């Protein structure tokens, strides 16, 4: 008899251990649940086996009702149904935040007897889920009248506590995710704000630079105007031989082309545009800056450029790099009020790099002057925004900080060496770009009769420019009709007077040249379009329309007409 009792007791202990093992597995699953759906899924999968019940149900509080959202049962119970919270056991358990233990469902005032009469349920336990203010309940049901055991109640309550913890964790994680999303949004907004501020600071620095350059450029521009005015004056005097007329005209043309290059560089420098990193050929870039650098430095400062042969292209924004170099040149000039020398050197390096750079190939671009130099304290603060040693009104203190910011954006860095009384060297490190530098395609030039025939509608509000361009076109063999307003040109075309080619200025009163060209491209795509302008932003507004910058020569005009006609063909 004792042996039989011991055997039964051993079997009960094994069964209880198995149930707690199932409950432990369920709790581990609940620890990873982050939503009510996931918690319900775990309870439905484990609770009935853990408690040893004939059925379980998960009930969700929905305002003043109890919604039976899931069940695992020997027979269907109330899944999907709703009952008033005031007249069901789950409502009582949630309202009182207490476990309801019911040995006989037909002998307890908390039980809506009619709802249970048609089911197998004869005894039950209902446990609230959700901490201080329960939002759900877990019920276990048996088909026999009996007092649920302490172990059965303890197992069910343990599962309910784990579910409550999972719900709180889910709420916490949801709050953290919402906070993280808010922080990320604020970081994005702050980053965008900083980028706008940096763009504004760059523009302020460029405007400051333009102000400093005005006097130097005006001096050089007057020098360029002198041979133009003098040569034309001699030609118009009527007392010159054909040879001297040709000589004076040639000199005037050379001066005009130099002035054109200087003006275009200034317009490019002043232009506002986003950072666009691509392959930049330094010899080409510095060659194009020669006249502007020489004008900036003035006649008392000797400029030298020494570039390593076969220098690889760098990854940079050509426009911003020009601004950076011009900033360094201005700083060098201002450090040499009595004259001196400024050198620009460049070499490719793969070793002995600054510690802040990632391994790789770089070009070290060094701008050195023989000026006053910097003290250690000034050198340490030189790249801080708004730091300057110049007198009030002679600098914003943004030059070196902009150079440093540009280098950092491109994956490079800036170093400064300086000795008081000997001069300063600024090393701008830029990463090598593997892709080759872009080179513009040669202009398309038409040949034969087609190149010198056709009807042109010329639009320009400046009488002198319009008359000069008309004379060029007539001499080239075109039939020309001209007007000073885009609206008049559009009216002529809409009335049936359609040209082969439209040549228009951009900035005019009323409708602009770009607006006119875009309208014609949509309504009359067979008309070739050419925009002539001294405004540097046209290529950003309408990049796919052929453009010719003022001033231009006859051969440039003819090449662009050919390109426009090829585009319209």
Automatic annotation (TrEMBL):
Sorted UniProt keywords: Coiled coil, Kinase, Phosphoprotein, Transferase
Modified residues (4-aspartylphosphate): 505
EC identifiers of the protein: 2.7.13.3
Keyword Transferase tagged: yes
Record keyword Kinase present: yes
Coiled-coil annotated spans: 173-200
Pfam family, one: HisKA
Annotated SMART domains: GAF, HATPase_c, HisKA, REC
Name of the protein: histidine kinase
Source taxonomy: Bacteria, Pseudomonadati, Pseudomonadota, Alphaproteobacteria, Sphingomonadales
